[in-house]
Design a protein that fits this description.
Number of strands: 7
Helix content: 10-25%
Number of domains: 1
Distance between the termini: 20 Å
Order of helices and strands: EEHEHEHEEE
């Protein structure tokens, strides 16, 4: 899967990742929105951004907002103790990656 990310500091770019949750952890680290790009899109045509990219994760939004997006992919977001976690809906398991396991974008 190919993704585009951007945060409020102006950091943005593209990367590929096979695992959706790992992609989320990659951008979560820099507090960036994550967009899944349509197949074959190498670079976004800003005139048709909404047709080429789909918001997958928004770090500043509530769990309910992110859950609505993630449910299509079998995940939800919840607070577990003091941590915000991604949960596999079928198994109820927390899906988590250590920061050392994800790409460093900046």
């Amino acid at each position: 899967m190919r993704f585009y990310y951007e945060n409020s500091l102006g950091d943005n770019g593209y990367f590929s990742e096979k695992d959706l949750v790992k992609a989320i952890y990659t951008v979560w680290n820099i507090e960036a929105n994550l967009y899944l790009l349509d197949d074959g899109i190498k670079k976004i045509d800003w005139k048709s951004f909404n047709q080429q990219a789909k918001l997958i994760f928004a770090p500043y939004e509530e769990n309910e907002f992110n859950t609505e997006i993630l449910e299509e992919y079998g995940y939800k977001m919840e607070d577990v103790g003091k941590e915000r976690e991604i949960i596999d809906i079928k198994t109820g398991e927390v899906v988590k990656y250590d920061w050392s396991e994800v790409k460093q974008l900046i």
